[in-house]
Amino acid sequence: MSAGPVVVLVGPMGVGKSTVGELVAERLGVGHRDTDEDIVAAEGRTIADIFVEEGEPAFRAIEKRAVHQALAEHEGVLALGGGAILDADTRALLAGLPVVYLSMDVEEAVKRTGLNTARPLLAVNPRRQWRELMEARRHLYTEVARAVVATDDRTPEEVAQAVLDALELKQA
Predict the structure, then answer these.
(1) Contact criterion met (CB below 8 Å) for 150 and 103
(2) Model confidence pLDDT, tens digit, residues 41-88
C-alpha cells in the first residue's frame, strides 16, 4: 500500500486535469496517472463506448474500482475523471489527501469541450448540460478539495504552477 498520491486533480471534463497533471508530475519529478486512461486500457474501449453499450451506472462502477485502485497504488500525480467524485466512498477516500479542484466557467468549458462526441454527457445542448452537471457537482468538488485553482484564461503551465503554489509544493 502506498502513501497515496502527492497531488490529486479533480474537476469537470475538459478542464485540463490530464495536461496539468502531466506538467505538475514533471515539475515534481514523479509519475502521472489518469484514471480515465486506466479505464480505457483495462476495458479496451473508449469511455463513450462504455456509456453507450452499458450505460452510466455500469461506467460509474468501473470508474469507482479504477479510482480506488489508483488511490491505493499511485504515489505521483493522479487525475480523476470528472464524475469520480459522485461516489461517496471515493469522496471518503479523498479526505485528507492533497486534492486540487481545477475550475472553469461555462464559456471556457464550451470552448474547450465543444460538441465533442467523446464526451457522452454533453452530446445534446452542451452549454446547458455542462451548467447542470456543474450545479450537481460543484459542491462535491469543493468538498473534497484542499485548494481550488481557476483555469480560465490561463495556460496549462500557469495552472500547473498555481497547483504547486496552492499545495506549497516545491519543484524537483
Answers:
(1) yes
(2) 999 999 989 988 999 899 999 999 999 999 999 999 999 999 999 999
Residue with C-alpha cell 500547473?
A: 160
Please name the amino acid found at residue 24.
V
pTM of the model: 0.89
Q: Which of 23, 152, 165, 19 shows the shortest CA–CA distance to 100?
A: 165
The strands making up 147-150's β-sheet, listed across from edge to edge, are 32-34, 77-79, 7-10, 99-103, 147-150
Q: Residue 60 phi/psi, 5° resolution?
A: -60, -35
Q: Is 57:85 a contact under the CB 8 Å cutoff?
A: no
Percent of the chain residues topping a pLDDT of 90 = 69
Q: C-alpha distances in angstroms, 147 versus 11, 89, 97, 98?
A: 12, 20, 11, 8
